[in-house]
Amino acid sequence: MTILRGPNNNSIEQGQFRKKTNFRCKSSVGVNAVLLGVYKYEVKRQRARGQRPRGCVLLIRNLSQMGVATLPGNGEIATDAVATHPLILGLQPAALVDHVAHIDWSLLDHIPGDRGGSMPVAIEELEHILKEVKAHKLALPGELSPMKTMAGGSVANTIRGLSAGFGVSCGIIGACGDDEQGKLFVSNMSFNGVNLSRLRMKQGHTAQCVCMVDELGNRTMRPCLSSAVKVQADELTMEDFKGSKWLVLRYAVFNLEVIQAAIRTAKKEGLFVSMDLASFEMVRNFKSQLLQLLESGDIDLCFANEDEAMELLRGEQTTDPEAAAEFLAKHCNWAVVTLGANGCIARHGKEIVRVPAIGEAKATDATGAGDLFAGGFLYGLVKGLSLEECCQVGACSGGSVIRSLGGEVTPENWQWMYKQMQIRDLPLPDIRN
């Protein structure tokens, strides 16, 4: 059962709840059992009656504005409010919270690692970087806040986008700490309709990442994962994967054991596997392990950005995106290389398509662009769309997230995406914000 708590951990009484949210859905469900359960139930019930489920959408948004969070009962995160067997599962061994901020690019001169990449740091370094970022963050014109904190991680971004923007039933496999960051992760993902019954809560710290964004939208990431709790390979069960169709994961050598275990179990249950190459540093430093994973034949869909593609083919005669897509397609059913403002190139069997980017030429923040592209592409696959249409939906989705700060699409930008899809005669999601 989900308990609602407001600011200062005070419970919200039903009268106060109805008054503050203007909740008018015809349901006898009490406050302590509301949120996702009422939302999903009322959306379906009102649609069946030909009504617009506006009150339920306002309910969720107003709860968020009130500072309401979902606090799991009996030490569990599981909830029956969402699909028992999600269509798409994401494996993110360690739940992660992103701190995203616009900064003066010169700040990176004082931070170890390459600009534009993602390099793990210790907790002490993370705290130092956060302190520097808070002191040097930039407020851009029209931006409400130069810094945002939200549930993050590549897989979480993809899964949240599929659930919130495309109405696809999704769940996440992983673990989070019993700290404030863990509560934030749970609240944010629950709010967006993600099934958390496979997310283990453990004593300890939740992973964090500082995402520093320059004025051109380029981002540099410094994740702190070493002290974070995470799900272990021997904790995965067949039941975690039963009834689902896709497993989404991100390549990471420090999670290789649990990744391999998840792939083995997923394949036994008949799931397709989608993998993102993570970062050019990960490809550069752990290329042999990556090649073994690709050559296993267990990866059905692989995403790489242009930098990762070049690292993958470093030392080869040809390192262009077309060659990278061809290389990946030898091992995967679908291979996609994203090219930022230049769109993407994709292969499926002998079919090759190149699709231009959709949206702003200049990104407010590129954080999550590849993750949301992957979400849109997967939506296309489960809808049975053509390769070109999958890329177009991916381009619409990726274009929506770069319009604002952080890897979570705003309601306004979801509407922008739906408009772009409609213009291109692409099938719109059944549930739209």
UniProtKB/TrEMBL annotation:
Top-level taxon: Eukaryota
CDD domains reported in the protein's UniProt record: adenosine_kinase
A Pfam family assignment: PfkB
Molecular function, one GO term: kinase activity
Keyword terms of this UniProt record: Kinase, Transferase
Domain Carbohydrate kinase PfkB residues, every copy: 146-407
Record has Methyltransferase as a keyword: no
Family named by the database record: Belongs to the carbohydrate kinase PfkB family.
Protein name stated in the entry: CARBOHYDRATE KINASE-LIKE
UniProt organism field: Salix koriyanagi
